[in-house]
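Re: the 239-residue chain
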Amino acid sequence: MSSFDIISEYYDTIISDRNIDSIYLDIFNTHVKDAKKVLDLGCGTGKFLSKIVTSEKIGVDISEQMIKQARIKNPDCLFLKSDLRYLELKNQTYDFVVSMYDVINNIKKIEDWRKLFVNVYNSLNKNGIFAFDINTQERMESVLKASPMIKVFGCDNFSITIVKQINNSNSLFKWEHLLVVSRPNGNYVFKHMNNYELTPAIDDVYQILTKIFRKIDTVDIDKMSGGSIGGKKIFICFK
């Protein structure tokens, strides 16, 4: 079972700041607005995927319960359950591949990042685009200072997120999520999950990408944008 299965029912409520969706949609509409086949890696509950208008959409996620939520929002989409490190894309090609909300950071070895990037490149149609975002080291410095982060939602519901650096290389972080949800009968449900994120230097990521893709553009999400997206960086990779 994926750790995200534990909070899938409440994920959209906890991650309510979806401003980055509009940024990704701008990228989609600017660069690949005529795309017929779109792949979302780490699609989660399918909220972003539901905003893309195209003839064929495929979502991939490691969490069966997140995919269950995604199917409700996207009844006509195909969904695959897979760890992105082992995903086989060689039999399909896509016009646009996207991976948002620091999904890539959840892959904890930089060599596995490289393998995924090559896999995506080989699955893109001519002039296809791969767009993804990551948490930067600068962002993680801000997150560490803000931890623990408490969010109240609904009636008597709240989440606590605690982030810790777990090694001395300033690259691996533990995200601990605690969730308390009230039930109509007066009882409370307690949810707890951990996930780990790798946050390599931007130059290291860029060097890997330039050896694979024809062109790389980047977009910085300014820290002042606030919410859950400040300090992220978007990579737009052209085949």
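The mean pLDDT is 88.
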